[in-house]
Amino acid sequence: MNSRTLPLIAFALLIALLMVGLKIADRKELIPSPLINKPVPAFDLPVLGNPQQRLSNESMLGKPYLVNFWASWCVTCAVEHPVVTALANANKLTVLGMNFRDERDDAMAWLNKHGDPYDIILRDADGRISIDFGVYAAPESFLVDPEGIIVFKQTGALTPEIVQNEILPRVAAMQGGQK
Amino acid sequence: MKLSEGLSVAGHDLAMLTTAGLNMGQLKSGCLKIGWLKIGGLIFLALLLSVPVQAQEPLVFENQQMQDRFDALTFELRCAVCQNQSLADSDAPLAHDLRREIHDMMMAGQSNEQIKQFMVDRYGDFVLYRPPVQANTWLLWLGPLLMLLIGGLVLRANIKKRSALLNDTNNLENTGAPENTRKPE
Question: What is the pTM assigned to this prediction?
Fold first, then answer.
């Protein structure tokens, strides 16, 4: 009896392990960003609509903001865009768009089509800043506190639930949460 | 121009090959030789056509040593986009950029440890195919050893059981028990 049940139990355990693996394989949040609780990576980038104007991470100190990486080639970015729009229109924090690995004309056409709710959009043309942020999928969003520390990261589309449960409570808890 | 010529030649050969295939019934050894030549030619053409793709990313190194170091390093780092490929294997745009980044860091004289730290700072321990031994990876590292131990214990138990059985049979023989009282094997 023992010699028959033991392999069966082992096999059942293996199946269970594989099932769990299949279930969590697509959950990107299980790969935690090492940037949480770290200072936001330094950036100094041109503004998308006005290349003469530049903005750096230092000039963003003192207020909470959300860095939202997007691109015209990114399908999910269009899916999450209504959520980003609602968040930006709520005026609870600055929403900084980070257009990366994109052509300016494509980006502008995309904004014309889907609307431009961003407070400001920077252009990371070669994606060098996106590497410093550890962006490997789009969209990705980083919530930065007034001291310039990343407190939350979302890989993949923002949803109303994430805004409600993860982003807004953190903004409310911050010093100088007013925009 | 050369490319299209090559393609049309390849197409022609392909047509010939198909005809050759249809005539399989009346194949002679000579025909077979030509067939293999044609296949070789096709493979050669395919290799010719594949060269421009590789040339997309000319990362130049000073010497073979640097090249080897780069190959080993990118093979040990996981591509975060396509998670079951290494940076060396992946064709994702991010992997291209990261390879260039690593190349530049090597040129700037950074050590392997510094380059790995650069990757871990951005993408986490996850990008290391050989993650560090720490609280959440001990099962990963010790798991195989644990399995070996369990296997060894099972093996030992089995050997004990069998040698006990063997001893029993020997004892029966030594005490001169009659043949018919022995258990059938």
Answer: 0.68
